[in-house]
Amino acid sequence: MACQETENGRRKCERYWAQEREPLQAGPFCITLTKETALTADITLRTLQVTFQKESRPVHQLQYMSWPDHGVPSSSDHILTMVEEARCLQGLGPGPLCVHCSAGCGRTGVLCAVDYVRQLLLTQTIPPNFSLFEVVLEMRKQRPAAVQTEEQYRFLYHTVAQLFSRTLQNNSPLYQNLKEAVPS
Predict the structure, then answer these.
(1) pLDDT digits (tens, 9 = 90+) for 132-141
(2) How far is residue 180 CA from its own chain's centroid?
(3) How many whole angstroms separate alpha carbon 78 and alpha carbon 82?
(4) Cβ within 8 Å of residue 38, ≥6 positions away
(5) Contact assessment for residue 135 and residue 36, using Cβ atoms and an 8 Å cutoff
(6) Are the beta carbons of 62 and 45 closer than 8 angstroms?
(7) Which pTM was predicted?
(8) Known PANTHER family for this protein (predicted)?
(9) Which of 13, 30, 88, 101 is catalytic?
(10) Which of 4, 46, 111, 115 has most Cβ atoms within 10 angstroms of its Cβ?
């Protein structure tokens, strides 16, 4: 989740999660908050228990608290932390990953693009003709206005560059003699 319930005095998102000691009934679903943790100053992790009829399962929710609508966060670090944490949590259960902001365009698009590129890096399937522009273009075929503003697009480029840099640093033994192999 990349928004707050209210931003600049305007309602951006309905609270669909329970608060402490306040179970939430949403249609046939009963939702209770089992744990809330501040992972960073900007990211909150909630563990919810969702019950439908007699079946109950945990649901994890990550909320980025300080990403301005139509704007960008002050740093890529927390966004990368959030995407990594989401994927880590997803591995704990059978459910899909759901990403949203207020309209599902700008902030959601940036998070989805970062996650997509991260998955390409982890699976070592970056195509030789990789283009972040093409990634966003493909996303916009499925969700118009994904990565909504020029500022968000620049932030995405910066974040992906940081992701590549981290990946190369983690694989440094593979690349430590690269300078020697490149002709002058």
Answers:
(1) 999 999 999 9
(2) 37
(3) 6
(4) 44, 45
(5) no
(6) yes
(7) 0.87
(8) TYROSINE PHOSPHATSE N18, PUTATIVE-RELATED, TYROSINE-PROTEIN PHOSPHATASE NON-RECEPTOR TYPE 18
(9) 101
(10) 111
